[in-house]
Each structure stands twice: as structure tokens, then as C-alpha cells.
Design a protein that fits this description.
Bound molecules: phosphoenolpyruvate
Number of domains: 1
CATH class: Alpha Beta
Largest sheet: 8 strands, parallel, barrel
Distance between the termini: 15 Å
Length: about 250
């Protein structure tokens, strides 16, 4: 079966109660692009309120702890996200890997926690600029995949997001050939490890996706959707990306 396009908004540390109306507008407008799965991952403080405001829509966390509960001041566990209506969680975002020192082992444990709580997982990988420039990008990302993707899961509930770190929030994007080569390499590694099940896993591209470049990026081989930061904060910027994904699915 063909993989449905998947467009996910990562609001990062942006959004107050007033942003709930924006999310409602995004999902309302996305309804006319029914071939696309859409999710929004707001800050923890908004997950419950947003899930309640858009029943049946996919709302997610941007991170979770690997434990289900315990003495981890300030952390949020995957069952807590599920409890307030989240159905998705992002793990291993480069901003967490870099700023919070998360290792592949940590990311894998978080992914396992998310899956165990019944959430769908978006697991992020991506290379820094120096590694891209030295020619080691594919090796770096495949090592992250080997180290952070769990061994057993429903392939439809775990998506990979390839996000070159140097493209996040910078306006820079890799060439289409580089995107296709990376996504093909990721698909190849997943197939070597999981066999035919890898065909059901979605591989998203992330890094400065916007309404102008979405059609091209999402049309590249093995690109099944997008993880979007800055351009996901408003309906005016996010819906054109969803529309571009919908046009490709047709
Ligand atoms: C991200 O935060 O995952 C991201 C891709 O950000 P941006 O779209 O702003 O580059």
C-alpha cells in the first residue's frame, strides 16, 4: 500500500493559549487536503488543551522521558502525553541531541517509551554541517539509525525524520539529489534490518521547509512528508505545505 504523506509541525518553544485558535485554523483548512496526515507538536503546556480543542486530530509532544514515571523533575513521561490526548511524540530532535546531550541510546529508549505508551513516534536524525562538508553525512545518519531505532515496532507507528542540522531554521536546504540519496540510504538500511516492513515506514524531510520549496522537496524519491518548524506556526505558512503534499499524493 502506498505510504500516505505526513506533514508534522514542531512548534518548539513557541505558543501560548492564544495559539490554540491557530491550530484549529490549520486543521480546519487541512481538511480539504484529505490525502495528507497532519500532526502538530506544541510545547507540553499546550498538548492537553490542543488535543481537547481539535478532537480526533493528531497532537504530539516534542520529547518524552524514557521512564514511565519517577523522580525526574521537569520531565514529562510518554503515558502522561497519552493521558492528555496526545497520539504522537517526537524523539531525538537535534536540538535535544545537541543542547541536552541525548545519545542514540537515550533516543532509542525514548522511542520505546513512546511506543509502549501507544504513541506514534517521529524519530529524528541528521548531520551537522562539518560532517556534510567532509562527505560523511550518510555514514553519520545511518549510524544514528542503527543506534536509535528500536528493534521491534509497528512500522506504521514509527517515522524517521531526516533533518540536516545546518538546514534547521537557517533557510538553507540540501540539493534534491542529496535529499533523495539520504532518504534512499535510510530506506536501504531499514530494509536490511526490518525487511519488507521498512516499506511501510515513512521518512520525513525536515529543515527550512516552506510553501515555496515543499512541492520539490516532498516530490523527491523516498520523501514521505515533512517535519516543519518555523513555517508550522501559522495556517498561512503551514497549510501551503500540506496542500503541496496533497497535490503530490493525487
Ligand atoms: C525543526 O524544528 O524540526 C525544523 C525543521 O525547523 P525549521 O522548519 O524551522 O527549519
Amino acid at each position: 500500500m502506498a505510504r500516505r504523506k505526513y506533514v508534522v509541525g514542531n512548534w518548539k518553544m513557541n505558543g501560548l493559549s492564544a495559539s490554540i485558535a491557530e491550530a484549529q485554523a490549520i486543521f480546519a483548512e487541512a481538511q480539504s487536503h484529505a490525502s495528507v496526515d497532519v500532526a502538530i507538536c506544541p510545547p507540553f503546556t499546550l498538548v492537553g488543551a490542543l488535543a481537547a480543542a481539535v478532537p480526533g486530530k493528531a497532537i504530539g509532544g516534542q520529547d518524552c522521558h524514557s521512564a514511565a514515571s519517577g523522580a525526574f523533575t521537569g520531565s514529562v513521561a510518554a503515558p502522561m502525553l497519552a493521558d492528555v490526548g496526545a497520539t504522537v511524540v517526537i524523539v531525538g530532535h537535534s536540538e535535544r541531541r545537541e543542547a541536552f546531550g541525548e545519545s542514540d541510546d537515550d533516543v532509542r529508549a525514548k522511542a520505546e517509551a513512546g511506543l509502549a505508551a501507544g504513541l506514534s513516534v517521529i524519530l529524528c536524525v541528521g548531520e551537522p554541517r562539518a560532517i556534510r562538508e567532509s562527505g560523511g553525512a550518510i555514514g553519520h545518519v545511518l549510524a544514528q539509525i542503527a543506534g536509535s531505532v528500536p528493534d521491534a515496532f509497528d512500522p506504521q507507528r514509527l517515522a524517521i525524520a531526516y533533518e540536516p542540522i545546518w538546514a534547521i531554521g537557517t533557510g538553507l536546504v540540501p540539493t534534491l539529489a542529496d535529499v533523495a540519496a539520504m532518504h534512499g540510504a535510510i530506506r536501504g538500511a531499514l530494509t536490511a534490518r526490518f525487511g519488507g516492513a521498512a516499506q511501510d515506514m515513512r521518512i520525513l524531510y525536515g529543515g527550512s521547509v516552506n510553501g515555496d520549496n515543499a512541492a520539490e522537496l516532498l516530490g523527491a524519491d523516498d520523501v514521505d512528508g515533512a517535519l516543519v518548524g518555523g513555517a508550522s506556526l501559522t495556517a498561512a505558512k503551514f497549510v501551503p505545505i500540506i496542500a503541496a503534499a496533497d497535490a503530490l499524493a493525487g
